[in-house]
Specification:
Layout lengths: L22 H27 L1 H8 L4 H26 L5 H29 L8 H32 L9 H26 L2
Length: about 200
């Protein structure tokens, strides 16, 4: 029976799989995801013990604002991805424009959270009101800190991009900041249904 011999694949034909950005950022991302994961499990556990309280308290949240913030973060992640693609194509001038859009959407998220919190505080609802709001404020405020930190990272990337630092030969810093921002987005994708929609 004849045996068909196949030449070994060349180095060029082999696709190299790698995590985008600096490998160290992924240790931070995994640690953050694990920490939030434990909070999510605790939330579901406490919710099972006080279903009526959680459902009633949840009704006071503004789902429309929650949806808008979700769209803001999803669109901002798209903008960051497009900025990276632009850099890889050497479309250097497009990179800061997309990063500016992502920054504006991150700031928009913060503004909406400010109005959400203000509305709750105005009617006497706070972190200590009940178990649901303990989780709501703790989780969303921790996440908000991450949004603020991520937006600062995007501003640094935008400043570098304006100087033409990101191009086909240099996308590592851009990918590192983008990886953190995508994590912030991912956390909200879990937080939104847990806090606003789960019944």
């Amino acid at each position: 029976m004849p045996v068909e011999l196949t030449a070994p694949a060349s180095a060029e034909s082999k696709s190299v799989l790698r995590l985008p950005g600096d490998p160290d950022i992924w240790f931070l991302i995994f640690a953050e995801l694990m920490t939030f994961g434990m909070f999510f499990v605790a939330y579901v556990g406490y919710r099972a013990l006080e279903v009526d309280l959680f459902n009633e308290s949840q009704l006071s949240l503004d789902r429309t604002l929650g949806v808008i913030n979700t769209l803001f973060l999803l669109t901002s992640s798209w903008a960051v991805v497009t900025a990276i693609e632009s850099a890889r194509k050497n479309q250097v001038k497009a990179v800061p424009r997309y990063l500016a859009l992502a920054i504006a959407l991150g700031v928009g998220f913060m503004v909406i959270k400010y109005f959400e919190y203000s509305a709750k505080f105005a009617v006497g609802i706070s972190l200590t009101t009940n178990t649901f709001f303990n989780f709501y404020f703790a989780l969303t405020m921790i996440h908000l800190v991450h949004v603020i930190g991520g937006t600062i990272v995007l501003i640094v990337l935008w400043s570098n991009a304006r100087d033409g630092k990101y191009h086909a030969g240099n996308t590592r810093g851009l990918e590192t900041g983008a990886s953190f921002w995508h994590m912030v987005d991912l956390l909200w994708i879990f937080l939104f249904p847990l806090l606003y929609l789960l019944r």
